[in-house]
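Archive maintenance. Older records in this collection stored only the sequence; we are now back-filling the structure field for every entry so that each record is complete. The fields below show one back-filled record exactly as it appears after the update. Entries are processed alphabetically, and Porin is next in the queue.

ARCHIVE ENTRY
Title: Porin
Organism field: Mangrovimicrobium sediminis
Length field: 412
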Amino acid sequence: MKQIGAGLAFSLLAAHVAQAATPTPEEMWEIIQKQQAQIEALEKKLADADRRLEQTDVKVEATADMVEEQVAAGAGGSGGLGNKTTLGGYAELHYNNLDNNRDGGNDKDQLDLHRFVLFLGHEFSEKTRFYSELEVEHALVEGGEDSGEVELEQAYIEHDLGAHTRGKAGVFLLPVGLLNETHEPDTFYGVERNNVESRIIPTTWWEGGLALSGEFAPGLSYDAAFTSGLKLDAEEGQWSIRSGRQKVAEADASDPAYTARLKYTGIAGLEVAASLQYQQDLYQGQLNDEVDAVLYEAHIAYQGGPFGLRALWASWDIDDGINDFRTGADEQTGWYVEPSWRPLKNLGFFARYSEWDNQAGGGGDTEYNQWDVGVNYWLEETVVFKLDYQVQEAPDGSDEYEGFNLGVGWSF
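Back-filled structure field:
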């Protein structure tokens, strides 16, 4: 910069000398001082220009970084909601073609959009998250006898209390069984959910309250929950556990429920778990005496290469204090075993045998059993087509529902 100024001063001086008579020393000194002032003013303008250019470069870089962040958020945040908010869901369309061979039984020949579910989650920070699940069942045919339902199955806050401990508050799925917490159609075999995990364990089963989860050691975890409970209607003489789901819709919380689970996943492909729930009063104070109940559940799931196995047992032990209409229903039990074979990434076969008894009776046989065999074809990793054949035997020995089911399901 100084070299430029000196050269400029020399040029100006030479021009002045060429246009005027030879100056006196005093005039020469005055000319030099004026030219030096002009040079300093020019240098200041150049410095200001350099500073503004640097500031512009910084702003451009900041704008570029912001644009990159917004693009990344839009690409990774499910529909441009941002990388802290996620959107997902799943759905199932079923076709059932089943013959009922019992006296007075009705056949099934129907097509049903069984479920359409949307997930919405948000990460407030590295420690605090929100999860929700909104479900429409049976396409919500308003005004008919078989109207569908809109249900809020999950809406809770989860917070990390420590490196290996998490807490929940809100409405959440209970930690029981294989399907209750993980039931997207691409994650299990068969068009319909198995009867043991829908009649004995009333999947999908959610309650409102508090929960604590954590790990004792790598592969060994626990869950504990204090929640609202089931409520059977005493006036209608209800005894079936599934009838008692309140779905946290102005739920009677006179008597709460307590749930605990211990799970081991320390071996690749293996899950072994056991759950226990204590229900203080299945009738929530409707009767003079409390009718308490305990659910015991245990299961194993293993996937080793192409071969898989699922097995589950669940049983309710219910206080038999009102046996006038619950004779035989004080113990509601079921189990199933399901081997599978997946020779290709997108093709799998299964067979399932199940037994369950959730009926009241006068001491006679009230047990159902069912065989299911079928195939799953995964068009994509989370898009699946299903076909199965079932034979369900009623307590009287007749085939209550025999036939085939078709389904398509997806999740994202």
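Update note: The first helix runs from residue 2 to 19. The first strand starts at residue 85 and ends at 99.
Entry marked complete.
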